[in-house]
Amino acid sequence: MSHLAETILSAAQALPEGGLLSAKEFLHLASRAAVDQTLTRLTREGKLMRIGRGAYAAPVISRFGARPPSTEAVVKAIESASGELIVANGATEANALGLTTQVPTREVFLTSGRSRKLQLGNRTVELKHGNRWQLVLGARPAGMAIRALSWLGPEQASSALKVLHTKLPPAEWAAMRSARAVLPSWMARAVSEVSEHA
């Protein structure tokens, strides 16, 4: 194994699960073409996994063999490396908040960055660029509630909000009310109506 391949592998193995590598990190050791070829070869040999365009991670080795890193670990690594905000989509949030029993079959996240797909073994994880209002309160419960409402739509908003009003702590409900200026009109109106009648 070449010195470049050894350096790349030891860098990958030193990272926590889901930690990502890119060719740019090794350009001080060799040309771009040489780094790309080495990354491709290590991926072919199963020592690295290509997660997305220009992003690689080490597989997780357990007594059951090698597996891809967890979705959560990869999402956290992307957030810390890029500074993006990445949150679960509305269907996942509605399920987590008990507003639906429907379990999402696809792994879809909303991001403040560009839309793209990640490949984690045989799982495809989709990162979709989200609207500002969908990301406004981040991963906190009030942000989860906004994304859940977005997925449920105007028809189910008021009944869902009545449930949320009993579930969310007062500080989260207040945060959701304070975000009304950036929410779509139908959602801002529904939040106001439930607040008044509560």
Please characterize this protein's 3D structure.
This is Transcriptional regulator, AbiEi antitoxin, Type IV TA system. InterPro entries: DUF6088. It comes from Thauera terpenica 58Eu. With 198 residues, the protein is of the alpha+beta class. The protein folds into three domains: 3-67, Arc Repressor Mutant, subunit A (Orthogonal Bundle), CATH 1.10.10.10; 71-133, no CATH class; 136-197. Helices cover 48% and strands 17% of the residues. It has nine helices and eight strands. It has helices at 3-14, 32-44, 71-82, 90-96, 132-135, 141-152, 154-167, 170-178, 185-197; strands at residues 49-52, 55-57, 60-62, 65-67, 86-88, 107-111, 116-120, 123-129. The protein has a four-stranded mixed β-sheet with strand order 5-6-8-7. A two-stranded antiparallel ribbon has the order 1-2. Helix 1 crosses helix 2 (32-44) and helix 6 crosses helix 8. It starts with a helix and ends with a helix. The model has no long low-confidence stretch (mean pLDDT 93).
